[in-house]
Amino acid sequence: MNFMASKQPENSLLGPETDSQRTLYPYVTGTSVVALKYKYGILMAADMGSSYGSTLRYKSVERMKPIGKHSLLGASGEISDFQEILCFLDELILHDNMWDDGNSLGPKEVHNYLTRIMYNRCNKFNPLWISLVLGGVKNGQKYLGMVGSNMIGVSFEDNHVATGFGNYLVRPILRQEWHENMSFEDGVKLLEKCMRVLLYCDKSAINKLQIANITEEGVTISQPYSLKTYWEFSAFENPAQGAVGSW
């Protein structure tokens, strides 16, 4: 008896022309997120701009979301991947609430979950093109971590973190000025200073930001507002002056 493999029609869903696709380049992206611990909780800041390629197309995109009762998530990178992560987290929190055992996932557990998600997608050669900042407070313990800075699920905890250009431009400021017993007002001022530096130096940043605060009582995200800026610095008037090989 001969067994002959049936030939797939050219328009079959199993045909080679419909092989699984991978995101090769992010399209709509958000820039830096900056966060720090302060005396009573976690403060996080992000602007509301999202770029379509190199065009600053969208100017009202929220990139910080509360997760469950104890956590706050911020993201930079591909916005659609951030939305997918939020769907995963909604399912995770729903499943946790269904136990109705009086307990709830804390920021450390959510951070570990995100690390596994990012690493799993990397192993499938289909990474999520985002960097995530996860902060929270549970039982008086403050937690702040980052995951996915290079899309392979690498994670760490620190007293202050930043994604994107912020990791290069404002971490030195945070290392110099942050202290453990920082008040809410001082923390907001430091974040605003960092966001102002990013506004000056990052072409994808816009002067419309939000600052989120999470404490034992819950999450508060401010209304969008703008920072006072000064553009008359001599370096801004002729930035290429004295640069070797510049135009």
Gist of the model:
By secondary structure, this protein is α+β, with helices and mostly antiparallel strands.
What this model shows, in words?
The chain is built from 6 helices and 13 strands. The chain is α+β, with helices and mostly antiparallel strands. The strands form 2 sheets. Strands 1, 4, 5, 6, 7, 8, 9 and 10 form an 8-stranded antiparallel beta sheet that branches. A 5-stranded antiparallel beta sheet has the order 11-2-3-12-13. A hairpin with a 3-residue loop joins strand 6 and strand 7. The chain is globular. The N and C termini lie far apart (76 Å).
List keywords for this structure.
247 residues, alpha+beta, five-stranded antiparallel beta sheet, 6 helices, 28% helix, globular, disordered N terminus
Q: Given the structure, what is the number of helices?
A: 6
Q: Which value, in Å, is the CA radius of gyration?
A: 21 Å
Shape: globular
Give helix % range: 25-40%
User: What portion of the residues fall into strands of 2 or more residues?
Assistant: 25-35%
